[in-house]
């Protein structure tokens, strides 16, 4: 019998090559964040860090296939979204370290990475701030008569923000090419879902604005990719805004250092059993799409990439104090305000 290769499609629902891309991106995100956690604990990264470990199926499944001209807005938990949009780990890590070779010259940090070139219209420390920005990008795409799409991420904690509702309403009225991605991980900081969300599914919020909305289990990255591709395609073809609710589990604390005493120990102990990465590896193995040593080689390649990024960040300088006011305000006349 002919040996299967990574182009095998049997039983996956997508090509073996696409499944391997998903695996690579999820692993890159996880290893980047695990290294980030160590660096933060060692005092090499200032500020706050929110990890998306356990939730990698969202950035990999949703962002990994977008066009370079598509735009995204990320969240305070946005490393994965930004890596998914094609960011280099070096300037990402440098930004986390507050160095001037970072994406925002060290002034944004983990929660405010921004890159016009990548179509990243910002991670955001303000809940609900990204949705109006994405609607603006989608309006721009529509007015310029392009087929560009904006994709915007928010958690259930952000979902009750007025700006999210205004954004959904405008997007629906103007039939804008924007896809709303609700990341439901069960908590908003220390508060469980049922305490602060009035509906059992955020997809109902989309439906209330006339936005087609689906729910998908984030444990299954292939299901996330298939749903995201369908919805992005619909938005691109002029069918107006779409919404996807993705149910995941937050493996770590709200931020690094959160002791999570508010969490049921049994629930916490069980989250790692629902690992989108292990799930994909199992499926690839079952269909014979994982070449011998492929995983080890991928891990080695990613470990090298992460260490290169750490070295890049360490080699950077802290921003000069006299540059504190540079790039703070947009300046249509040029000079200051030119981001990366
Ligand atoms: C407007 C606003 N209100 C409150 C906060 C404080 N805050 C930061 S993260 C967070 C919870 C976010 O929960 P969710 O949107 O579900 O995202 P998750 O952290 O679970 O990824 C809160 C309340 C904030 N950053 N912005």
Spatial gap, N to C terminus: 52 Å
| Biggest sheet record | 5 strands, parallel
Tell me the β content: 5-15%
Low-pLDDT runs: 1-8, 336-340
The total number of structural domains is 1
| Main structural class | alpha/beta
Instruction: Quickly count the helices.
Output: 12
Q: How would you describe the shape? A: globular
Q: Fraction of residues in helices?
A: 40-55%
- What would the CATH topology be? Rossmann fold
Order of helices and strands: HHEHHHEHEEEHHEHEHHH
Highest-level CATH class = Alpha Beta
What's the Cα radius of gyration?
A: 20 Å
Compounds present? thiamine diphosphate
**Which CATH architecture would you pick?**
3-Layer(aba) Sandwich
Biggest sheet: strand arrangement: 1-2-3-7-6
Question: Kindly state the mean pLDDT as a whole number?
Answer: 94
Q: What oligomeric arrangement do these chains adopt? A: single chain
Name its key features.
5-stranded parallel beta sheet; disordered C terminus; disordered N terminus; 7 strands; 340 residues; alpha/beta; 41% helix; two-stranded antiparallel sheet; binds thiamine diphosphate
Outline the structure in words:
The chain is α/β, with parallel strands linked by helices and 340 residues long. The protein has a single domain (16-309), classed as Rossmann fold. Helix content is 41%, strand content 9%. It has a 5-stranded parallel sheet, with helices on both faces. The model is unreliable at 1-8 and 336-340 (pLDDT under 50). The structure holds thiamine diphosphate.
């Amino acid at each position: 019998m002919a040996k299967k290769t990574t182009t095998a499609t049997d039983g996956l629902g997508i090509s073996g090559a696409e499944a391997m891309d998903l695996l690579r991106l999820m692993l890159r995100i996880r290893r980047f964040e695990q290294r980030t956690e160590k660096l933060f604990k060692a005092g090499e990264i200032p500020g706050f860090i929110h990890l998306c470990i356990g939730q990698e199926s969202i950035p990999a499944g949703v962002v990994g296939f977008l066009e370079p001209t598509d735009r995204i807005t990320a969240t305070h938990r946005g490393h994965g979204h930004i890596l998914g949009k094609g960011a280099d780990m070096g300037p990402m890590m440098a930004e986390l370290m507050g160095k001037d070779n970072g994406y925002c010259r060290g002034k944004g940090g983990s929660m405010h990475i921004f890159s016009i070139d990548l179509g990243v219209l910002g991670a955001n420390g303000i809940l609900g701030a990204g949705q109006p920005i994405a609607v603006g990008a989608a309006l721009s795409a529509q007015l310029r008569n392009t087929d560009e799409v904006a994709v915007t991420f928010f958690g259930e904690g952000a979902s009750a923000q007025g700006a999210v509702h205004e954004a959904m309403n405008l997007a629906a009225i103007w039939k804008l090419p924007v896809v709303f991605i609700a990341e439901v991980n069960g908590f908003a900081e220390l508060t469980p879902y049922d305490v602060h969300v009035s509906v059992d599914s955020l997809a109902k919020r989309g439906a209330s604005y006339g936005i087609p909305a689906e729910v998908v289990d984030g444990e299954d990255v292939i299901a996330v990719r298939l749903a995201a591709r369908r919805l992005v395609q619909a938005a691109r073809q002029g069918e107006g805004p779409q919404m996807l609710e993705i149910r995941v589990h937050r493996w770590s604390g709200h931020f690094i250092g959160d002791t999570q005493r508010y969490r049921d120990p049994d629930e916490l102990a069980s989250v790692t059993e629902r690992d989108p990465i292990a799930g994909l590896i199992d499926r690839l193995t079952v269909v014979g799409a994982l070449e011998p040593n492929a995983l080890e080689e991928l891990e080695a390649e990613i470990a090298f990439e992460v260490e290169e990024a750490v070295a890049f960040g360490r080699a950077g300088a802290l921003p000069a104090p006299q540059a504190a006011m540079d790039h703070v305000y947009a300046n249509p006349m040029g000079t200051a305000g030119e981001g990366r």
